[in-house]
Specification:
By secondary structure, the protein is mainly beta. The protein has a single domain, classed as Beta-galactosidase, Chain A, domain 5. It has three helices and 29 strands. About 45% of the residues are buried.
Length: about 375
């Protein structure tokens, strides 16, 4: 752990310039509070053309400002303007958060390790576990190990037995902005008992701006020849199927909305996209896997990861009423998308999927990079 942190600290570069002036940043006082005796704050990072606001409550990205092709800045992630709205959400719970210890769903809210069955919270449709359960990593106050003008490192110790997961799990999480207008996210975790670990990031993006309407006109490319189909409760069936001749084929760039209303049973299961794509290339190797382009603004998002899977969610359950964004407007149906780099969902219950068990003599690591540009 110490060697890893020393390696991270070695790449910290203090930006010579301050944040972009005139941006409608969330006031830090809106997050200055304490929860269960732990201090919560809002931190602002800046490097190049990117300004990021993040809180240690759930290690959440609250705001992310990026320029369009004319140099006009917009906040391109959905979020709230106060800590209270994250602590007691009226709608979407996971805005901008680190999710885990097991991102995505666990079918039947149970899994087995060496013959022992572990039960986890049924916080998804009263049947399955979603994003770590009732007390996932999105619901905790993280310690801040270090903070500079372009980098923040969080740490959290998750106790053995929390929400049914075995092992004392130590997690380190890095957010770093670099000179390439990239948000670099790195994870490290270790445990004292065998336990499943599958961490991910859950920002909701709209490259035209948080309150700019539907994302169905965004053009997307995904480097994946296959995906993992789901059942009516969004649990993988265990199959790995080709994307060819399906609405899940994004190997050629096209609009998210082009086939999102197709007469397809998989589309019907999620009311759109909420599926895991099986990424091409070698897992463990950082490679470019997704691009998203918003034609009107010219903003482009490029995602690189060393993970084997990418969950893309098209915001199908925003209802235009219950989740209110930072600018006071409700978040509408398909008004944002999520790109969650991870191992395959429900892997512990599908032997042919990715191995997500972490052992005491191992480290879990992940690197995912979100690059912001224009074209």
């Amino acid at each position: 752990m110490k060697k890893y942190l020393i390696g991270i600290l070695a790449v910290l570069v203090l930006a010579s310039c301050g944040q972009k002036k005139g941006l409608p940043l969330i006031p830090e006082k809106n997050f200055a509070d304490s929860l269960a005796g732990r201090e919560v704050k809002l931190y602002t990072l800046h490097r190049g053309n990117i300004t990021l606001q993040v809180t240690n409550y759930g290690a959440r990205v609250v705001s992310l400002f990026a320029p369009d092709r004319e140099g006009k800045f917009a906040d391109i992630v959905a979020g709230h303007k106060t800590l209270a709205e994250y602590v007691n959400p009226t709608g979407e719970r996971y805005l901008g958060a680190c999710v885990g210890p097991v991102a995505n769903r666990i079918g039947g809210a149970s899994f087995e390790i060496d013959g022992e069955v572990f039960e986890t919270p049924k916080n998804d449709n009263g049947v399955n576990t979603l994003h770590g359960g009732e007390f996932g990593l999105d619901k905790v106050v993280w310690d801040v190990f270090t903070y500079s003008s372009d980098t923040i490192i969080f740490e959290y110790d998750r106790p053995d037995g929390q929400d049914g997961f075995p092992g004392n799990l130590h997690v380190t999480l890095l957010y770093m902005l670099n000179e390439h207008n990239e948000l670099v996210i790195r994870y490290l975790a270790n445990t004292d008992k065998v336990t499943p670990v599958n961490l991910s990031h859950h920002s909701f993006f709209n490259l035209a701006g948080e309150d700019a309407g539907s994302i169905e006109g965004h053009l997307m490319w995904i480097d994946a020849d296959a995906y993992t189909p789901i059942d009516s409760l969004s649990i993988p069936t265990g199959e790995i199927l080709p994307v060819e001749d399906t609405p899940f084929d994004f190997r050629q760039e096209h609009a998210i909305g082009e086939m999102i209303a197709a007469d397809d049973p998989q589309i019907a299961c999620a009311n759109g996209y909420d599926h895991n794509w099986v990424l091409n290339g070698e897992a463990g190797t950082l490679r470019e896997v997704v691009t998203v382009y918003e034609p009107e603004s010219g903003r482009m998002l490029t995602v690189s990861t060393d993970q084997p899977g990418m969950q893309m969610y098209s915001g199908n359950f925003f209802d235009g009423a219950t989740t209110i964004g930072k600018r006071g407007k409700p978040l509408g149906f398909r008004s944002s998308f999520v790109l969650e780099a991870q191992k395959f969902p429900d892997s512990m219950n599908h032997p042919d999927f990715t191995d997500i068990l972490l052992y005491p003599d191992e480290d879990y690591t992940q690197t995912t990079v979100y690059e912001f540009s224009v074209r």
